[in-house]
């Protein structure tokens, strides 16, 4: 199988190296000593966080020997993943204007078969119209007019993951009522944005949008935005967005806490059809 997403290849390679290390009864420190590198490099390698040339082929072969991998086919599979982890991502032309951490989100959305996300303040990025995105970026004051237009063009490509002919991303979003009523741009832009959400849900069976009304009161999503990504049979990965920085979380305990929080939020949301009627009503009131 050929991968088109370097992040997916890094995650697969890291997971396999972690599995092999544990099967060999070795610690990350022992592996680091073998490669004459820091423990943190091995940790980042196993978590898919290293970018660019994550390992030299000769280093990977040394690890295979250390882990007792003698099957050349298995070694070739590891080398293939290493090669694919260094390919150019589709978003590379926009990297000079991309906010820090966005590449991780794009990689996850490209590789994952499912994303679950509570959105408290804004419409989810994969559901945004170009005018909504433009108004949002202009309102932030962080970007030049030229950068805004390039980021709008990037945002326009992002929903392609929902339309892939094979294995499209299954997206489930819980939208707080605040995200529907917060003015971003003109009333016309907001009406078109809300109607676009309805049209997307009605057109794509792999997209679910649930509304969490103000009447539901305080909920776990108010603590901050996050997304849960499922990639194949790998453990769920969480992405946390915050002013202090964006984080990919792989730890079982951390991810489980966020998954439990999402389920609590989801249980308090309206059903799909009732949510669409709610969004339509807000559009009429806007």
TrEMBL record:
- One Pfam entry name: HTH_31
Report domain HTH cro/C1-type positions. Answer: 17-78
| GO MF terms, alphabetically ordered | DNA binding
Top-level taxon of origin = Bacteria
User: Which Gene3D superfamilies does the record cross-reference, listed alphabetically?
Assistant: lambda repressor-like DNA-binding domains (1.10.260.40)
The protein, known as: Putative transcriptional regulator
């Amino acid at each position: 199988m050929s991968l088109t997403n370097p992040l997916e290849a890094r995650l697969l390679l890291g997971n396999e190296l972690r599995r092999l290390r544990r099967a060999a009864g070795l610690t990350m420190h022992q592996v680091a000593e073998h490669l004459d590198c820091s423990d943190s490099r091995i940790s980042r390698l196993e978590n898919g966080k290293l970018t660019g040339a994550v390992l030299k082929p000769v280093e990977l072969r040394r690890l295979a020997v250390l882990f007792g991998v003698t099957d050349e086919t298995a070694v070739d599979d590891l080398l293939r993943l290493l090669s694919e982890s260094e390919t150019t991502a589709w978003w590379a032309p926009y990297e000079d204007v991309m906010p820090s951490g966005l590449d991780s989100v794009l990689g996850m959305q490209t590789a994952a078969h499912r994303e679950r996300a509570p959105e408290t303040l804004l419409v989810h990025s994969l559901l945004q119209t170009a005018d909504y995105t433009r108004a949002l970026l202009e309102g932030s004051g962080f970007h030049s007019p030229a950068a805004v237009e390039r980021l709008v063009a990037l945002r326009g490509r992002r929903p392609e993951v929902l339309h892939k002919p094979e294995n499209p991303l299954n997206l489930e979003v819980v939208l707080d009522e605040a995200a529907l009523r917060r003015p971003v741009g003109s009333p016309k832009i907001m009406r078109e944005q809300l109607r676009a959400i309805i049209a997307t849900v009605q057109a794509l069976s792999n997209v679910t949008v649930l509304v969490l009304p103000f009447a539901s009161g305080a909920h776990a999503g108010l603590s901050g935005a996050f997304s849960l990504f499922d990639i194949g049979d790998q453990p769920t990965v969480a992405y946390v967005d915050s002013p202090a920085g964006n984080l990919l979380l792989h730890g079982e305990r951390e991810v489980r806490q966020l998954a439990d929080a999402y389920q609590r939020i989801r249980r308090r949301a309206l059903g799909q059809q009732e949510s669409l009627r709610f969004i339509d009503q807000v559009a009429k009131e806007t």
